[in-house]
Write a structure and sequence with these properties.
The structure is a single chain. By secondary structure, the chain is of the alpha/beta class. Helix content is 32%, strand content 23%. It is built from five helices and seven strands, in the order E-H-E-E-E-E-E-H-H-H-H-E. It starts with a strand and ends in a 7-residue tail after the last strand.
């Protein structure tokens, strides 16, 4: 089973991203449980969404405390919460940032990092820093857990209006094509 935790800020679409990703994975024949997190969050406050996927039925419906993958759709949320809390060994981080990997604070448990300057892309496409569909493309590129075709279909079947649909499909493609994937070599313990 793969467990994914999506971090963002209120109003950026972290919960919607989880729903679109879940729909895309179902199209690929996976069993998926998406657990949105709602509470007293307000626009701009840190939020999280959770997703499990497997080749067989999933019974666990709780939040995810030990993710295999962290999808962070906001470059600043890591200053407010520990996005690496409970992350498993050999984890994947997919992060929106314009900074090079050498400048990032990473958990020693992360072995694959996908980086995408999604804010710049979002400002160009949407004129607002909404990065969720861009980062779904980055997720596909960094993890290989879902195809772009399935994500395209899930976006087309989502609640986007016709005008927003083309923008979000373009954002998905740009996210995929703009993501740089890094493998981290872990140092042996002394």
């Amino acid at each position: 089973m793969h467990e994914i935790r999506i971090h963002g800020r209120g109003g950026q679409g972290a919960v919607m991203a989880g729903g679109i990703l879940a729909a895309a994975l179902v199209l690929e024949g996976k069993f998926v449980v998406a657990v949105p997190s709602f509470g007293f969050e307000r626009r701009g406050a840190p939020v999280a969404s959770f997703l499990r996927l497997d080749d067989r039925e999933i019974r666990q419906m709780t939040n995810i405390y030990n993710p295999d993958c962290i999808l962070c759709i906001d470059p600043t949320v890591g200053r407010a919460v520990d996005i690496f809390d409970g992350v498993r060994e050999n984890a994947v981080l997919v992060q929106t940032t314009a900074r090079p990997i050498e400048e990032l604070r990473l958990s020693e448990r992360v072995v694959t990092v996908g980086l995408c300057d999604a804010i710049s892309i979002a400002l160009e496409i949407f004129r607002r820093p909404i990065t969720n569909t861009i980062m779904l493309g980055a997720f596909a590129r960094a993890t290989g857990l879902v195809t772009l075709d399935s994500l395209r279909t899930a976006i087309a079947e989502s609640e986007f209006r016709d005008a927003g649909l083309e923008q979000n499909l373009a954002a998905l493609e740009r996210g995929y094509n703009s993501t740089k994937v890094h493998s981290i070599v872990q140092k042996a313990a002394a």
